[in-house]
Amino acid sequence: MEQNQDRLKDIISHSKEYGFVFPSSEIYDGLAATYDYGQLGAELKNNIKTYWWKAMVQMHENIVGLDAAIFMHPTIWKASGHVDAFNDPLIDNKDSKKRYRADVLLEEHIEKIRQKIDKEIAKGVARFGDDFDQEQFRKTNPNVLRNQEKIDGIEIKMKGALENNDLDAVRDLIVELEIVCSVSGSKNWTDVKQFNLMFSTEMGSVAGDASTIYLRPETAQGIFVNFLNVQKSGRMKIPFGIAQIGKAFRNEIIARQFIFRMREFEQMEMQFFVRPGEEMKWYAYWKDLRIKWHKNLGLGDNLYRFHDHLKLAHYANAASDIEYNFPMGFKELEGIHSRTDFDLKQHELHSGKKLQFFDPEMNESYVPFVIETSVGLDRMFLAVLSSAYTNEILEDGSERVVLKIPAVLAPYKAAILPLIKKDGLPEKAREIMKDLQFDFNLQYDEKDSIGKRYRRQDAIGTPFSITIDHQTLEDNMVTVRDRDTMLQQRISVSEIGSMIEKKASWKTILSNL
Ligand code: ATP
Fold first, then answer.
1. Distance, CA 284 to ligand 1 centroid (Å)?
2. Which of these three, 358, 392, 426, is where a domain ends?
3. Which residue has the least CA distance to atom 19 on ligand 1?
Protein backbone atom coordinates (compact mmCIF):
# COMPACT_ATOMS: atom_id res chain seq x y z
CA MET A 1 0.00 0.00 0.00
CA GLU A 2 1.19 3.46 -0.89
CA GLN A 3 2.28 4.87 2.48
CA ASN A 4 2.20 8.59 2.25
CA GLN A 5 0.45 11.85 2.66
CA ASP A 6 -0.52 11.88 -1.03
CA ARG A 7 -2.70 8.88 -0.48
CA LEU A 8 -4.34 10.59 2.50
CA LYS A 9 -4.90 13.69 0.37
CA ASP A 10 -6.53 11.58 -2.35
CA ILE A 11 -8.82 9.98 0.22
CA ILE A 12 -9.76 13.38 1.67
CA SER A 13 -10.68 14.83 -1.71
CA HIS A 14 -12.51 11.68 -2.79
CA SER A 15 -14.49 11.75 0.47
CA LYS A 16 -15.55 15.30 -0.21
CA GLU A 17 -16.32 14.83 -3.90
CA TYR A 18 -18.66 11.90 -3.29
CA GLY A 19 -20.37 13.08 -0.11
CA PHE A 20 -18.62 11.03 2.56
CA VAL A 21 -16.94 13.75 4.64
CA PHE A 22 -17.06 17.56 4.41
CA PRO A 23 -14.99 20.04 6.38
CA SER A 24 -17.29 21.54 9.01
CA SER A 25 -18.60 25.09 8.43
CA GLU A 26 -16.90 25.11 5.05
CA ILE A 27 -18.57 28.28 3.73
CA TYR A 28 -17.01 30.07 6.71
CA ASP A 29 -13.60 28.57 5.85
CA GLY A 30 -14.03 25.61 8.18
CA LEU A 31 -13.44 24.92 11.85
CA ALA A 32 -10.19 23.21 12.81
CA ALA A 33 -10.38 19.47 13.40
CA THR A 34 -14.15 19.29 12.96
CA TYR A 35 -15.86 17.44 10.13
CA ASP A 36 -19.37 16.71 8.91
CA TYR A 37 -20.42 13.38 7.47
CA GLY A 38 -22.27 13.70 4.19
CA GLN A 39 -25.02 11.58 2.67
CA LEU A 40 -22.79 8.55 2.07
CA GLY A 41 -20.62 9.11 5.12
CA ALA A 42 -23.69 8.96 7.35
CA GLU A 43 -24.61 5.59 5.82
CA LEU A 44 -21.13 4.13 6.19
CA LYS A 45 -20.88 5.43 9.75
CA ASN A 46 -24.25 3.92 10.66
CA ASN A 47 -23.21 0.58 9.21
CA ILE A 48 -19.98 0.56 11.22
CA LYS A 49 -22.00 1.35 14.35
CA THR A 50 -24.41 -1.48 13.57
CA TYR A 51 -21.55 -3.94 13.05
CA TRP A 52 -20.14 -2.99 16.44
CA TRP A 53 -23.48 -2.89 18.25
CA LYS A 54 -24.66 -6.22 16.90
CA ALA A 55 -21.33 -7.91 17.65
CA MET A 56 -21.35 -6.52 21.21
CA VAL A 57 -24.98 -6.43 22.30
CA GLN A 58 -26.96 -8.70 20.03
CA MET A 59 -24.37 -11.48 20.03
CA HIS A 60 -23.71 -11.47 23.80
CA GLU A 61 -26.50 -12.28 26.18
CA ASN A 62 -24.55 -10.65 29.03
CA ILE A 63 -23.95 -7.29 27.31
CA VAL A 64 -26.59 -4.58 27.14
CA GLY A 65 -26.63 -1.08 25.68
CA LEU A 66 -26.91 2.40 27.13
CA ASP A 67 -27.36 5.93 25.81
CA ALA A 68 -26.28 8.36 28.52
CA ALA A 69 -26.39 12.15 28.30
CA ILE A 70 -23.32 14.09 27.22
CA PHE A 71 -23.74 16.57 30.08
CA MET A 72 -23.02 15.08 33.45
CA HIS A 73 -22.58 16.29 36.99
CA PRO A 74 -19.22 18.12 37.15
CA THR A 75 -18.10 16.11 40.18
CA ILE A 76 -17.97 13.04 37.92
CA TRP A 77 -14.92 14.50 36.18
CA LYS A 78 -13.29 15.32 39.49
CA ALA A 79 -13.90 11.74 40.66
CA SER A 80 -12.65 10.19 37.44
CA GLY A 81 -9.42 12.17 37.63
CA HIS A 82 -10.01 14.07 34.42
CA VAL A 83 -10.06 17.53 36.04
CA ASP A 84 -6.64 16.97 37.58
CA ALA A 85 -4.97 14.53 35.23
CA PHE A 86 -6.47 14.52 31.74
CA ASN A 87 -3.53 16.40 30.34
CA ASP A 88 -1.20 16.16 27.41
CA PRO A 89 2.37 17.44 27.68
CA LEU A 90 2.81 20.16 25.05
CA ILE A 91 5.97 21.73 23.69
CA ASP A 92 6.42 24.54 21.16
CA ASN A 93 9.19 25.08 18.67
CA LYS A 94 10.30 28.67 19.18
CA ASP A 95 11.24 29.21 15.53
CA SER A 96 8.23 27.75 13.72
CA LYS A 97 5.79 28.42 16.62
CA LYS A 98 4.46 24.99 15.90
CA ARG A 99 2.98 23.10 18.84
CA TYR A 100 3.62 19.41 19.47
CA ARG A 101 2.68 16.78 21.98
CA ALA A 102 5.98 15.99 23.68
CA ASP A 103 5.13 12.30 24.11
CA VAL A 104 4.20 12.03 20.43
CA LEU A 105 7.55 13.55 19.39
CA LEU A 106 9.29 10.86 21.40
CA GLU A 107 7.09 8.08 20.07
CA GLU A 108 7.70 9.17 16.49
CA HIS A 109 11.42 9.14 17.17
CA ILE A 110 11.15 5.57 18.48
CA GLU A 111 9.08 4.59 15.44
CA LYS A 112 11.86 5.83 13.13
CA ILE A 113 14.36 3.57 14.87
CA ARG A 114 11.86 0.70 14.67
CA GLN A 115 11.61 1.25 10.93
CA LYS A 116 15.39 0.83 10.67
CA ILE A 117 15.01 -2.58 12.31
CA ASP A 118 12.19 -3.47 9.91
CA LYS A 119 14.40 -2.52 6.96
CA GLU A 120 17.20 -4.70 8.24
CA ILE A 121 14.74 -7.60 8.57
CA ALA A 122 13.37 -6.98 5.08
CA LYS A 123 16.92 -7.24 3.74
CA GLY A 124 17.32 -10.58 5.53
CA VAL A 125 14.08 -11.87 4.04
CA ALA A 126 15.15 -10.79 0.57
CA ARG A 127 18.49 -12.52 0.97
CA PHE A 128 17.51 -15.78 2.62
CA GLY A 129 13.87 -16.22 1.57
CA ASP A 130 12.13 -19.13 3.28
CA ASP A 131 15.25 -20.03 5.26
CA PHE A 132 15.17 -16.71 7.09
CA ASP A 133 14.72 -17.10 10.84
CA GLN A 134 13.45 -13.73 12.03
CA GLU A 135 13.55 -14.58 15.71
CA GLN A 136 17.19 -15.64 15.51
CA PHE A 137 18.05 -12.61 13.38
CA ARG A 138 16.54 -10.23 15.95
CA LYS A 139 18.62 -11.88 18.68
CA THR A 140 21.94 -11.82 16.84
CA ASN A 141 22.17 -9.15 14.15
CA PRO A 142 24.39 -6.36 15.57
CA ASN A 143 22.47 -3.52 13.83
CA VAL A 144 19.14 -4.79 15.07
CA LEU A 145 20.51 -5.29 18.58
CA ARG A 146 22.00 -1.80 18.68
CA ASN A 147 18.75 -0.19 17.55
CA GLN A 148 16.64 -2.28 19.90
CA GLU A 149 18.89 -1.21 22.76
CA LYS A 150 18.38 2.40 21.77
CA ILE A 151 14.59 1.95 21.77
CA ASP A 152 14.63 0.22 25.15
CA GLY A 153 16.77 2.99 26.64
CA ILE A 154 14.48 5.75 25.37
CA GLU A 155 11.35 3.92 26.47
CA ILE A 156 12.63 3.48 30.03
CA LYS A 157 13.50 7.16 30.32
CA MET A 158 10.25 8.25 28.71
CA LYS A 159 8.14 6.04 30.96
CA GLY A 160 9.91 7.32 34.08
CA ALA A 161 9.56 10.96 33.09
CA LEU A 162 5.89 10.75 32.11
CA GLU A 163 4.84 8.65 35.07
CA ASN A 164 6.52 11.00 37.51
CA ASN A 165 5.12 13.98 35.67
CA ASP A 166 8.70 15.21 35.38
CA LEU A 167 8.26 17.67 32.52
CA ASP A 168 11.87 18.87 32.62
CA ALA A 169 13.02 15.30 32.09
CA VAL A 170 10.68 14.97 29.11
CA ARG A 171 12.21 18.10 27.57
CA ASP A 172 15.75 16.91 28.38
CA LEU A 173 15.05 13.67 26.53
CA ILE A 174 13.81 15.54 23.45
CA VAL A 175 16.99 17.65 23.52
CA GLU A 176 19.23 14.63 24.17
CA LEU A 177 17.76 12.77 21.19
CA GLU A 178 18.29 15.87 19.03
CA ILE A 179 14.69 15.82 17.83
CA VAL A 180 14.05 18.64 15.37
CA CYS A 181 10.87 20.47 14.38
CA SER A 182 9.69 19.23 11.00
CA VAL A 183 8.82 22.78 9.90
CA SER A 184 11.76 24.91 11.05
CA GLY A 185 14.30 22.09 11.28
CA SER A 186 15.50 23.61 14.56
CA LYS A 187 15.97 22.19 18.06
CA ASN A 188 14.88 25.42 19.71
CA TRP A 189 12.23 24.09 22.11
CA THR A 190 10.21 25.75 24.88
CA ASP A 191 9.62 24.09 28.24
CA VAL A 192 7.06 21.28 28.37
CA LYS A 193 3.70 22.28 29.87
CA GLN A 194 0.62 20.28 30.81
CA PHE A 195 -2.59 21.12 28.96
CA ASN A 196 -6.03 19.91 30.06
CA LEU A 197 -8.03 18.49 27.18
CA MET A 198 -11.56 18.98 28.50
CA PHE A 199 -13.91 21.56 27.03
CA SER A 200 -15.99 23.37 29.61
CA THR A 201 -19.15 25.39 29.38
CA GLU A 202 -21.72 26.82 31.75
CA MET A 203 -25.10 25.50 32.64
CA GLY A 204 -27.86 27.89 33.58
CA SER A 205 -28.63 31.27 32.04
CA VAL A 206 -27.95 33.49 35.05
CA ALA A 207 -24.27 34.31 35.21
CA GLY A 208 -23.92 34.22 39.00
CA ASP A 209 -25.90 31.02 39.14
CA ALA A 210 -23.92 29.27 36.51
CA SER A 211 -21.91 26.20 37.21
CA THR A 212 -19.08 24.88 35.10
CA ILE A 213 -19.81 21.66 33.34
CA TYR A 214 -17.67 19.66 30.93
CA LEU A 215 -18.31 18.15 27.56
CA ARG A 216 -17.50 14.49 28.20
CA PRO A 217 -14.00 13.53 26.99
CA GLU A 218 -14.99 9.84 26.98
CA THR A 219 -18.32 8.04 27.04
CA ALA A 220 -17.18 5.59 29.72
CA GLN A 221 -18.18 7.65 32.76
CA GLY A 222 -21.84 7.58 31.68
CA ILE A 223 -21.58 3.81 31.95
CA PHE A 224 -19.92 3.81 35.38
CA VAL A 225 -22.44 6.11 37.01
CA ASN A 226 -25.27 3.96 35.62
CA PHE A 227 -23.64 0.69 36.63
CA LEU A 228 -26.11 -0.12 39.39
CA ASN A 229 -29.15 1.19 37.50
CA VAL A 230 -28.44 -1.21 34.66
CA GLN A 231 -27.38 -4.09 36.88
CA LYS A 232 -30.52 -3.90 39.02
CA SER A 233 -33.11 -3.09 36.35
CA GLY A 234 -31.62 -5.61 33.92
CA ARG A 235 -30.99 -8.27 36.61
CA MET A 236 -27.43 -8.58 35.31
CA LYS A 237 -24.96 -11.00 36.89
CA ILE A 238 -21.22 -10.59 36.88
CA PRO A 239 -19.53 -10.87 34.45
CA PHE A 240 -21.56 -8.50 32.30
CA GLY A 241 -20.98 -5.57 29.99
CA ILE A 242 -22.54 -2.23 29.13
CA ALA A 243 -22.01 -0.88 25.62
CA GLN A 244 -22.46 2.66 24.40
CA ILE A 245 -21.90 4.68 21.24
CA GLY A 246 -21.69 8.43 21.54
CA LYS A 247 -19.91 11.71 21.05
CA ALA A 248 -16.84 12.70 23.02
CA PHE A 249 -14.94 15.98 23.00
CA ARG A 250 -11.26 16.73 23.50
CA ASN A 251 -9.43 19.99 23.00
CA GLU A 252 -6.57 18.22 21.21
CA ILE A 253 -3.27 20.11 21.06
CA ILE A 254 -2.50 18.95 17.58
CA ALA A 255 -5.47 18.07 15.50
CA ARG A 256 -4.31 17.06 12.06
CA GLN A 257 -4.67 14.06 9.84
CA PHE A 258 -8.28 14.44 8.79
CA ILE A 259 -10.78 12.50 10.89
CA PHE A 260 -8.03 10.64 12.75
CA ARG A 261 -7.76 13.28 15.45
CA MET A 262 -10.77 15.51 15.92
CA ARG A 263 -11.97 17.76 18.70
CA GLU A 264 -15.48 16.31 18.44
CA PHE A 265 -15.60 12.60 17.68
CA GLU A 266 -17.52 9.45 18.38
CA GLN A 267 -16.56 6.47 20.51
CA MET A 268 -17.91 2.95 20.73
CA GLU A 269 -17.12 1.79 24.24
CA MET A 270 -17.92 -1.28 26.26
CA GLN A 271 -17.21 -1.67 29.96
CA PHE A 272 -17.11 -5.27 31.13
CA PHE A 273 -17.60 -5.77 34.88
CA VAL A 274 -15.78 -8.75 36.39
CA ARG A 275 -14.84 -10.31 39.72
CA PRO A 276 -11.76 -8.76 41.35
CA GLY A 277 -8.77 -10.93 40.55
CA GLU A 278 -10.25 -12.21 37.29
CA GLU A 279 -9.46 -9.08 35.31
CA MET A 280 -6.34 -10.36 33.54
CA LYS A 281 -8.21 -13.36 32.18
CA TRP A 282 -10.93 -11.08 30.76
CA TYR A 283 -8.37 -8.57 29.52
CA ALA A 284 -6.78 -11.33 27.42
CA TYR A 285 -10.23 -12.50 26.29
CA TRP A 286 -11.27 -9.06 25.07
CA LYS A 287 -7.95 -8.37 23.36
CA ASP A 288 -8.46 -11.54 21.41
CA LEU A 289 -12.11 -10.91 20.55
CA ARG A 290 -11.59 -7.32 19.50
CA ILE A 291 -8.76 -8.05 17.07
CA LYS A 292 -10.95 -10.80 15.63
CA TRP A 293 -13.79 -8.30 15.13
CA HIS A 294 -11.48 -6.01 13.19
CA LYS A 295 -9.89 -8.73 11.06
CA ASN A 296 -13.31 -10.17 10.27
CA LEU A 297 -13.98 -7.16 8.05
CA GLY A 298 -11.37 -8.52 5.66
CA LEU A 299 -9.43 -5.27 5.22
CA GLY A 300 -6.19 -7.28 5.58
CA ASP A 301 -4.82 -9.09 8.63
CA ASN A 302 -1.37 -7.51 8.25
CA LEU A 303 -2.85 -4.03 8.75
CA TYR A 304 -3.26 -4.54 12.51
CA ARG A 305 -0.87 -4.87 15.41
CA PHE A 306 -1.01 -4.62 19.20
CA HIS A 307 0.93 -1.99 21.06
CA ASP A 308 1.14 -2.59 24.80
CA HIS A 309 1.27 0.62 26.83
CA LEU A 310 4.36 1.63 28.71
CA LYS A 311 2.81 4.56 30.46
CA LEU A 312 -0.44 3.49 32.02
CA ALA A 313 -3.26 5.96 32.52
CA HIS A 314 -4.05 6.81 36.13
CA TYR A 315 -6.87 4.22 36.20
CA ALA A 316 -5.31 1.21 34.48
CA ASN A 317 -3.23 -1.84 35.48
CA ALA A 318 -2.81 -3.07 31.90
CA ALA A 319 -3.52 -1.48 28.54
CA SER A 320 -2.99 -2.23 24.91
CA ASP A 321 -3.85 -0.49 21.67
CA ILE A 322 -4.93 -2.12 18.47
CA GLU A 323 -3.01 -0.13 15.89
CA TYR A 324 -3.98 0.09 12.26
CA ASN A 325 -1.74 0.84 9.31
CA PHE A 326 -3.33 4.13 8.22
CA PRO A 327 -1.85 6.05 5.27
CA MET A 328 0.18 7.93 7.92
CA GLY A 329 1.55 4.62 9.30
CA PHE A 330 0.56 2.46 12.28
CA LYS A 331 -1.62 4.45 14.73
CA GLU A 332 -4.08 3.70 17.51
CA LEU A 333 -7.49 2.53 16.40
CA GLU A 334 -8.79 0.99 19.62
CA GLY A 335 -7.77 0.90 23.26
CA ILE A 336 -8.28 -2.11 25.52
CA HIS A 337 -7.79 -1.22 29.15
CA SER A 338 -7.93 -3.04 32.43
CA ARG A 339 -9.37 -0.15 34.47
CA THR A 340 -9.34 -1.98 37.81
CA ASP A 341 -12.03 -0.83 40.29
CA PHE A 342 -10.69 2.72 40.10
CA ASP A 343 -13.70 4.45 38.56
CA LEU A 344 -16.43 2.78 40.60
CA LYS A 345 -14.47 3.27 43.84
CA GLN A 346 -13.91 6.94 43.02
CA HIS A 347 -17.62 7.41 42.35
CA GLU A 348 -18.45 5.70 45.65
CA LEU A 349 -16.11 8.11 47.38
CA HIS A 350 -17.39 11.28 45.72
CA SER A 351 -21.11 10.43 45.65
CA GLY A 352 -21.31 8.68 49.00
CA LYS A 353 -23.35 5.89 47.33
CA LYS A 354 -22.41 2.22 47.28
CA LEU A 355 -21.61 0.85 43.82
CA GLN A 356 -21.28 -2.81 44.66
CA PHE A 357 -22.52 -6.11 43.37
CA PHE A 358 -23.72 -8.90 45.60
CA ASP A 359 -22.27 -12.08 44.14
CA PRO A 360 -24.60 -14.95 45.13
CA GLU A 361 -22.01 -17.61 44.29
CA MET A 362 -19.38 -16.03 46.50
CA ASN A 363 -21.95 -14.80 49.00
CA GLU A 364 -20.25 -11.41 49.24
CA SER A 365 -20.49 -7.87 47.91
CA TYR A 366 -17.66 -6.21 46.04
CA VAL A 367 -16.81 -3.35 43.70
CA PRO A 368 -16.27 -5.06 40.35
CA PHE A 369 -13.15 -4.66 38.24
CA VAL A 370 -13.57 -3.37 34.72
CA ILE A 371 -12.19 -4.21 31.31
CA GLU A 372 -12.84 -1.51 28.74
CA THR A 373 -12.80 -1.74 24.99
CA SER A 374 -12.90 1.66 23.31
CA VAL A 375 -12.79 2.18 19.58
CA GLY A 376 -13.05 5.48 17.71
CA LEU A 377 -15.87 5.39 15.20
CA ASP A 378 -14.21 8.04 13.04
CA ARG A 379 -10.93 6.15 13.09
CA MET A 380 -12.79 3.01 12.04
CA PHE A 381 -14.30 5.01 9.21
CA LEU A 382 -10.85 6.17 8.10
CA ALA A 383 -9.48 2.62 8.39
CA VAL A 384 -12.25 1.29 6.15
CA LEU A 385 -11.88 4.10 3.61
CA SER A 386 -8.13 3.92 3.47
CA SER A 387 -8.04 0.21 2.82
CA ALA A 388 -10.96 0.46 0.38
CA TYR A 389 -9.65 3.30 -1.75
CA THR A 390 -8.09 1.74 -4.84
CA ASN A 391 -6.84 3.28 -8.04
CA GLU A 392 -6.83 0.59 -10.73
CA ILE A 393 -5.40 0.59 -14.21
CA LEU A 394 -7.63 -1.61 -16.33
CA GLU A 395 -6.63 -3.90 -19.20
CA ASP A 396 -7.65 -1.33 -21.80
CA GLY A 397 -5.34 1.21 -20.13
CA SER A 398 -8.15 3.25 -18.58
CA GLU A 399 -8.25 4.04 -14.87
CA ARG A 400 -10.93 3.50 -12.31
CA VAL A 401 -11.20 4.57 -8.71
CA VAL A 402 -13.03 1.95 -6.72
CA LEU A 403 -13.91 1.83 -3.04
CA LYS A 404 -13.64 -1.82 -2.06
CA ILE A 405 -15.69 -1.31 1.09
CA PRO A 406 -16.76 -4.57 2.78
CA ALA A 407 -20.21 -5.21 1.29
CA VAL A 408 -21.96 -5.21 4.66
CA LEU A 409 -20.69 -1.67 5.35
CA ALA A 410 -21.24 -0.21 1.86
CA PRO A 411 -23.62 2.80 1.82
CA TYR A 412 -25.65 1.28 -1.02
CA LYS A 413 -25.84 -2.46 -1.46
CA ALA A 414 -26.86 -2.23 -5.10
CA ALA A 415 -27.55 0.28 -7.86
CA ILE A 416 -30.66 -0.13 -9.99
CA LEU A 417 -29.89 0.95 -13.53
CA PRO A 418 -32.40 0.93 -16.40
CA LEU A 419 -30.33 0.67 -19.60
CA ILE A 420 -32.21 3.55 -21.21
CA LYS A 421 -34.72 6.08 -19.98
CA LYS A 422 -37.67 4.81 -22.07
CA ASP A 423 -39.50 1.75 -23.41
CA GLY A 424 -40.85 0.90 -19.97
CA LEU A 425 -37.37 0.14 -18.53
CA PRO A 426 -37.51 2.81 -15.79
CA GLU A 427 -40.90 1.48 -14.70
CA LYS A 428 -39.60 -2.08 -14.54
CA ALA A 429 -36.50 -0.89 -12.67
CA ARG A 430 -38.58 0.96 -10.08
CA GLU A 431 -40.79 -2.07 -9.62
CA ILE A 432 -37.71 -4.20 -8.84
CA MET A 433 -36.36 -1.49 -6.55
CA LYS A 434 -39.61 -1.16 -4.61
CA ASP A 435 -39.55 -4.80 -3.71
CA LEU A 436 -35.89 -4.86 -2.59
CA GLN A 437 -35.92 -1.54 -0.78
CA PHE A 438 -37.49 -3.01 2.37
CA ASP A 439 -34.30 -4.95 3.01
CA PHE A 440 -31.53 -2.98 1.35
CA ASN A 441 -30.42 0.60 0.79
CA LEU A 442 -30.38 1.02 -3.01
CA GLN A 443 -29.60 3.79 -5.44
CA TYR A 444 -31.62 4.39 -8.58
CA ASP A 445 -29.70 5.97 -11.48
CA GLU A 446 -30.82 6.44 -15.07
CA LYS A 447 -28.55 9.29 -16.15
CA ASP A 448 -25.58 8.89 -18.57
CA SER A 449 -24.18 5.83 -20.30
CA ILE A 450 -24.12 2.54 -18.43
CA GLY A 451 -20.30 2.64 -18.34
CA LYS A 452 -20.31 6.01 -16.62
CA ARG A 453 -22.89 4.82 -14.15
CA TYR A 454 -20.77 1.76 -13.30
CA ARG A 455 -17.80 4.05 -12.59
CA ARG A 456 -19.91 6.23 -10.31
CA GLN A 457 -20.99 3.17 -8.33
CA ASP A 458 -17.37 1.94 -8.14
CA ALA A 459 -16.36 5.31 -6.72
CA ILE A 460 -18.87 5.05 -3.88
CA GLY A 461 -18.30 1.36 -3.19
CA THR A 462 -21.63 -0.17 -4.28
CA PRO A 463 -21.03 -3.94 -4.42
CA PHE A 464 -23.61 -4.72 -7.12
CA SER A 465 -24.92 -2.87 -10.18
CA ILE A 466 -28.13 -4.27 -11.58
CA THR A 467 -29.02 -3.39 -15.15
CA ILE A 468 -32.53 -3.69 -16.51
CA ASP A 469 -32.70 -3.99 -20.32
CA HIS A 470 -35.30 -4.82 -22.98
CA GLN A 471 -34.72 -8.52 -22.48
CA THR A 472 -35.69 -8.12 -18.81
CA LEU A 473 -39.24 -7.22 -19.87
CA GLU A 474 -39.49 -10.59 -21.59
CA ASP A 475 -37.59 -13.02 -19.37
CA ASN A 476 -37.46 -11.20 -16.01
CA MET A 477 -33.66 -11.54 -15.94
CA VAL A 478 -31.19 -8.75 -15.14
CA THR A 479 -27.45 -8.23 -15.58
CA VAL A 480 -25.53 -8.05 -12.32
CA ARG A 481 -22.08 -6.51 -12.33
CA ASP A 482 -19.73 -7.19 -9.43
CA ARG A 483 -17.84 -4.10 -8.20
CA ASP A 484 -14.54 -5.85 -7.48
CA THR A 485 -14.22 -8.34 -10.33
CA MET A 486 -16.30 -6.30 -12.82
CA LEU A 487 -17.68 -9.65 -14.00
CA GLN A 488 -21.25 -9.67 -15.22
CA GLN A 489 -23.84 -12.39 -14.97
CA ARG A 490 -27.46 -12.76 -15.86
CA ILE A 491 -29.76 -13.76 -13.01
CA SER A 492 -33.49 -13.79 -12.46
CA VAL A 493 -35.15 -10.91 -10.62
CA SER A 494 -36.29 -13.27 -7.89
CA GLU A 495 -32.66 -14.18 -7.10
CA ILE A 496 -31.38 -10.63 -6.57
CA GLY A 497 -32.38 -10.45 -2.91
CA SER A 498 -30.67 -13.67 -1.90
CA MET A 499 -27.56 -12.76 -3.90
CA ILE A 500 -27.16 -9.47 -2.00
CA GLU A 501 -28.06 -11.18 1.24
CA LYS A 502 -25.33 -13.80 0.79
CA LYS A 503 -22.60 -11.19 0.46
CA ALA A 504 -23.84 -8.26 2.47
CA SER A 505 -26.02 -9.51 5.31
CA TRP A 506 -25.28 -9.11 9.00
CA LYS A 507 -25.63 -12.85 9.40
CA THR A 508 -22.86 -13.47 6.86
CA ILE A 509 -20.38 -11.29 8.69
CA LEU A 510 -21.43 -11.96 12.28
CA SER A 511 -21.44 -15.73 11.89
CA ASN A 512 -17.67 -15.64 11.28
CA LEU A 513 -16.94 -14.05 14.63
P1 ATP B 1 -4.43 9.04 21.23
O2 ATP B 1 -3.27 8.43 21.96
O3 ATP B 1 -4.41 8.79 19.75
O4 ATP B 1 -4.70 10.45 21.61
P5 ATP B 1 -6.03 7.99 23.32
O6 ATP B 1 -5.14 6.91 23.82
O7 ATP B 1 -6.11 9.27 24.03
O8 ATP B 1 -5.71 8.25 21.76
P9 ATP B 1 -8.41 6.73 24.26
O10 ATP B 1 -8.57 7.68 25.37
O11 ATP B 1 -7.94 5.35 24.55
O12 ATP B 1 -7.48 7.40 23.13
O13 ATP B 1 -9.76 6.70 23.42
C14 ATP B 1 -10.27 5.53 22.85
C15 ATP B 1 -10.43 5.65 21.36
O16 ATP B 1 -11.11 6.85 21.00
C17 ATP B 1 -9.10 5.73 20.62
O18 ATP B 1 -8.59 4.45 20.38
C19 ATP B 1 -9.49 6.42 19.33
O20 ATP B 1 -9.97 5.49 18.37
C21 ATP B 1 -10.64 7.33 19.75
N22 ATP B 1 -10.16 8.71 19.87
C23 ATP B 1 -9.52 9.26 20.90
N24 ATP B 1 -9.25 10.56 20.66
C25 ATP B 1 -9.74 10.83 19.42
C26 ATP B 1 -9.78 12.00 18.61
N27 ATP B 1 -9.28 13.15 19.02
N28 ATP B 1 -10.37 11.91 17.38
C29 ATP B 1 -10.90 10.75 16.95
N30 ATP B 1 -10.88 9.62 17.68
C31 ATP B 1 -10.31 9.65 18.90
1. 21
2. 392
3. 376
